[in-house]
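Q: Structure tokens for this one, please.
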Amino acid sequence: MTAGAERRSAARPVKQSRRRAREAAVQMLYQWEVGRDPILEVMRIFWTHGPSASQAMPEELRAFATSLAGGVAAAVADIDPMITEAAENWRIERMNVMDRLILRLAIYEFLHEPATPAKVVINEALELARTFSTDDSVRFINGILDAVRRTLQRA
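A: Here is the predicted structure, written as tokens:
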């Protein structure tokens, strides 16, 4: 095995783990959105009794997931107008709940996770859409996020 191949295979679990953290964040945001419970309560229940309670997740990734979910919930008033502006002829409340949450999460990362390249943020959002939504949603989310990325001039 070459040194480059070893680095790629060593980096892969971290990437997939961050995806697991993003999946956990979306699940918490879904509980928050649908259940209308305070995000802190949702996070407590999620880590105690949710699907991730039985699956070991390193503390660093739990912190990342919690930071994303809490950050999105706190910044939703700033994020939603960006979605509305990019989604011509779509009211945000008429969007599929999962699509709306994935968009919010990705835009939050655009704004608050500058070390993560925009291409990675979009790709991760599309993977979340493939996991939690539909093929049509993948195209919809891709279009909205690309428009927001251009507006933010995010590379």
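A few notes: The chain has a mean pLDDT of 87. The chain has one domain: 3-152.
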